[in-house]
Amino acid sequence: QVQLVESGGGLVQAGGSLRLSCAASGRTFPSYAMGWFRQAPGKERERVAATIWTGGSVYLTDVADSVKGRFTIFRDNAKKTVYLQMNSLKPEDTADYFCNAHSGSILPREGGDYWGQGTQVTVSS
To answer: Each residue of 46-56: pLDDT tens digit?
Structure first.
């Protein structure tokens, strides 16, 4: 019912920036929680950032401590797109990044109903 397509990954030097985009199609709703996960080689999947529906058009955000102050999540419902702005990138940010959506206001820690195919981010030192 919902398809998610990520874009914007690539290779950058430490200290650089990237903006990831996740375009949704199909049967979606503003109330659906959307966010980002990442998984590095040999490590467990980590929830990076998520939006929290307040019941209206305004969303709260939740960002992992590991990226707090550097990453920002925001969404444009008119374009059915959620973004992850990544600044001051570090080599430890290197991972595959996945968009996720859930048919509820809270994005589960393990991930919700729908996943994108992923986009790779590599940060060199």
So the answer is: 999 999 888 87
Q: How confident is the model at residue 16 (pLDDT cuts 50, 70, 90)?
A: very high
CA 105-3-53 angle, 5° bins: 15
Distance CA(85)–CA(8), nearest Å, equals: 10
- pLDDT tens for residues 80-109? 999 999 999 999 999 999 999 999 888 998
- Cα–Cα dist 115/102, whole Å: 9
Contacts of 41 (CB under 8 A, 6+ apart): none
Q: Collect contacts of 22-29 with beta carbons under 8 A, ≥24 apart.
A: 22/81, 22/82, 22/83, 22/84, 22/99, 22/116, 23/79, 23/80, 23/81, 24/80, 24/81, 24/82, 24/101, 25/80, 26/1, 26/2, 27/1, 27/2, 28/2, 28/80, 28/101, 29/103
